[in-house]
Amino acid sequence: SGLVRTDRYLVSGHSRGATTVWSILGAQFAAGNESDWCPGCTSDQASEVATTPLKDSRARAGLLLDGGVRGSLFGDDGAPEVTAPILWMTAGETGAGGSTTWDAMASNDAVWMAIADACHLSFTSGTCGTLDAQVGFDRIFPPVLAWARTTLLDDASVSGWIDGSVAQEGVTVTTR
């Protein structure tokens, strides 16, 4: 009892789980795109989803693991109502295609870490033909833990893992 803080947390999602992250951080589903994000819903059901806030004020930061802002869900402007800081980690195979999501996050306090040679599964099982699992975990976990310490505990002593001042082989950092 008392060892776990329940007043704030970091929300994380891999791939399509990024949708959950955006929703919990306050993104609203785009009106007019109901057939994209609520196929088979009645108009009343779609209206309920579109107008019900899913934001949890305890969620202080977001971690996106090879998942982005889906315009079909949140509209072409991304999620400007999200003010929480975002750490977005992508696999090297995402390449330049990630710039669309980065552009959609223009209004967010965000850091983009591209992990060279990683594949989509590097963020979950580590099973990847292009990157050894241990090397992948060594590139992913330190910045993730630093992100949590920095955003949840206001501990700037580990911020070098996030801003790129701690050099990591195979990791490219872009900040806003």
Can you give a write-up of this model?
- This protein is of the alpha/beta class and 176 residues long.
- 31% of the residues lie in helices and 17% in strands.
- It contains 7 helices and 5 strands; from the N terminus they run βαααβαβαβααβ.
- It has helices at 18-24, 34-37, 43-51, 71-74, 99-104, 133-153, 160-163, and strands at residues 9-14, 59-65, 86-91, 110-115, 171-175.
- Strands 1-2-3-4-5 form a 5-stranded mixed sheet, with helices on both faces.
- The radius of gyration is 17 Å and the shape is globular.
Mean pLDDT: 86
Alpha-carbon distance between the termini?
38 Å
Quick one: overall form? globular
Relative strand content: 15-25%
Q: Helix and strand layout, with pairings?
A:
Blueprint: E1 9-14, H1 18-24, H2 34-37, H3 43-51, E2 59-65, H4 71-74, E3 86-91, H5 99-104, E4 110-115, H6 133-153, H7 160-163, E5 171-175
Parallel strand pairs: 1-2, 2-3, 3-4
Antiparallel strand pairs: 4-5
Brief digest:
The chain is built from seven helices and five strands, in the order βαααβαβαβααβ. The protein is α/β, with parallel strands linked by helices and 176 residues long.
